[in-house]
Amino acid sequence: MRRALVLARRGVGKTSPNPTVGCVVVRGGAIVGEGWHRRAGTPHAEVHALRQAGDLARGADVYVTLEPCSHFGKTPPCADALVKAGVGRVFVGMVDPNPKVCGRGIERLRSAGIDVAAGILEAECRRLNEPFVKHVTTGLPFVILKSAMTMDGKTATATGDSRWITNEKSRHYVHKLRSMVDAVMVGVGTVMADNPQLTARTPRGRDPLRVVVDSSLRTPPDAQMLHQESTAATLITTVSSDVKLITSLESRGAEILRCRERQGRVDLRDLLAQLGSRGVQSVLLEGGSELAGEALRAGLIDKFVLFYAPKVLGGADGFGLFAGPSASRMDECHRFERVSVRRFGDDVMIEAYPEGSCLPGS
Fold this sequence. Notes:
The chain is α/β, with parallel strands linked by helices.
């Protein structure tokens, strides 16, 4: 199953709206077939692995990170393919939370006389498909907050300078993160201050949908993100109905999305719901502090990816990660669990989840 997970990770960022899946076929203690889901609309992991195994699949053990599908989509059911191949046993990482499957694939295999064991390395398999699980069960995208900070928690100097806090290795990983998500989101303040491109500048990287939260349409017409040679679109979300501003931005290729208003601003819950209805499974929230603070207090962040560089600004000025009111007591703090730490040179990346957070079905 660990090998199946390694294979599945090759498809991360390429299979949406489908999950990423890896499959291994074992005969006589040796791997005879491997596969992973490579792109939406193409054969699933089980099909690739069975093709490689050929006749050796008959009576073999199959390890698959996600329950084989049992319904017709753009491809035939994988459960039927396993039955036809005559496999002996199937080991499943996690049951598919998709209501169209959810146990039906396992039932199909068992009804054909195939032994099935589920829940093998389930936590790892579930973590691999966090965006898929969140979206298929709630209709909402999985939100990841990413930020880079100094050791004293500053995201920019008092003048707004933030280039560069972290080192090149950290920044390269961020571009990799962008290529793994469906959308990257920033507030209009970040657009005006940093003029970001919001592209995934990695070899064979896929640019995500660029989303700007811009309640009053202040995005400059000459913003870099509106002038990218990229297949990804730029979506500007607003509560404004100013025809002149809308026309100006649309003439530069941006799509304008009207959202419900909350205290004069874009209602983030409504925005996420609209993104989810468009098939967006994952959002990388990159800035700025107003947007991050509002998302934090609304409980909309599913995962935190925070980079700390070995630097301090010193003093009380400079910008922090979250704007707005903070907790008045320590026992009111936002707490985290499932914390992991990784280093990129001298930079430290902390990955964590809000305490008590749990995806449906976990």
